[in-house]
Amino acid sequence: xxxxxxxxxxxxxxxxxxxxLGITTQGKMREEAKKNLREAI
Length: 41
What we know:
Number of domains: 1
Distance between the termini: 11 Å
Number of helices: 1
Shape: globular
Radius of gyration: 9 Å
Order of helices and strands: EEEH
Strand content: 25-35%
Strand order of the largest sheet: 1-2-3
Number of strands: 3
Structural class: alpha+beta
C-alpha cells in the first residue's frame, strides 16, 4: 500500500505524518523521522 507522507520541520525536530492513518512521529533528523514512521506503520 502507498500512503502520503508529510514531513514538517520544527524548531528542534522533524515531524513525519501519514494523514490517512493518523500516525505522527518525530526525529532529530529528517531520515530519523521517516524511519520512525515506517516502524509505526
